[in-house]
Amino acid sequence: MTGQAPSLSFEIFPPKPEVGNEKILQALREMQGLAPHFISVTCSNNNLNVEETTVRLSDYVRNDLQVPTIAHLPAAYLTKEKVSSVLQSLDRIGVQRILALRGDIIQGLPPKEDFRYATDLISFIKEEAPHFDIIGACYPEGHPESGSAVADIKNLKKKVDAGCSSLVTQLFFDNDVFYDFQEKCYLADIEVPIIAGIMPIINRNQALRLLKTCENIRLPRKFKAILEKYEHQPESLRAAGLAYAVDQIVDLVTNDVAGVHLYTMNKAETARYIHQATHSLFRHFG
Ligand code: FAD
């Protein structure tokens, strides 16, 4: 037992402009009632209008809802000038925590040259605005582009040394993969807290998207059985998907995880369900 209570936090994404913000603001108000440790706001990797999307929603979370906020910033398609201006905008609204990312490279669209890897962005922020707290992304099953697990961990070590205070993982469904990864990090002297990213699967479309886009994510037999059996039974799929996520979280907290970051897909009811089922585990103990 560590004596340190783990954190429970939520991730949301800015909706497409044609969808409007009404639904997400309502969802955020409901999430506020669950007193998350923080809410993180994603950012599209080819978005030149970061201020209108990620910064604006971060402002709402931080200043209207008074919830600690982390703004994601993928920089592969940004220039140094643009990143400086986003940092200033974040400073103005009092959001000084950034999840610093490279972002996915879009096929046929060459990235800009200023930030080849997330590490370049982290070094830049540390020079330009050292008061920002920087969080990095990590991949328990390896990043799809990396040649080997060893190369991936070495790159992660460089990223943390450039100035990350913690890491948040890509989603995973097999906790043993996470525990192995934690151990590899420890052996590589990566000692910052590693927050586990958990995505409850609550509908068929989400499951299909997941199977298509996350080829390298291991799906345990128990998880695959849920997807197969309840593929055409929405209520059962939702109930089983949520129960699976709760089971993962109970195991992670029992094994002293530093925190759990829920990929909510903007659904307050997902956050509420998980919170209700697990919140007593997140109280301070020790
Ligand atoms: P990097 O850390 O730069 O790594 C990318 C690849 O380069 C890896 O294979 C790594 O091993 C390799 N590499 C790193 N450094 C070096 C080096 N010095 N030399 C050689 N190779 C190196 N995407 C978005 O667009 N918006 C978001 O809001 C967003 N949020 C995310 C949140 C989390 C928690 C996670 C896990 C991912 C998120 N992503 C987001 C996805 C992410 O942008 C992609 O996975 C992207 O492909 C990698 O970004 P990164 O910052 O991890 O890259």
From TrEMBL:
- Pathway membership, UniProt: One-carbon metabolism; tetrahydrofolate interconversion; Amino-acid biosynthesis; L-methionine biosynthesis via de novo pathway
Keywords associated with the record: Amino-acid biosynthesis, FAD, Flavoprotein, Methionine biosynthesis, NAD, Oxidoreductase
Q: Name one GO molecular function term.
A: methylenetetrahydrofolate reductase (NADH) activity
| Gene Ontology biological process terms from the UniProt entry | methionine biosynthetic process; tetrahydrofolate interconversion
Cofactor section: FAD
InterPro entries from the xrefs? FAD-linked_oxidoreductase-like, Mehydrof_redctse-like, MTHF_reductase_bac
- Superkingdom of the source? Bacteria
Provide the reaction this enzyme catalyses. (6S)-5-methyl-5,6,7,8-tetrahydrofolate + NAD(+) = (6R)-5,10-methylene-5,6,7,8-tetrahydrofolate + NADH + H(+)
Q: Name one GO cellular component term.
A: cytosol
Q: List its EC numbers.
A: 1.5.1.54
Is the NADP keyword given for this protein?
no
Pfam families per the UniProt record, alphabetical: MTHFR
- The protein in question is named Methylenetetrahydrofolate reductase
Q: Which organism is it from?
A: Streptococcus suivaginalis
Name of the encoding gene: metF
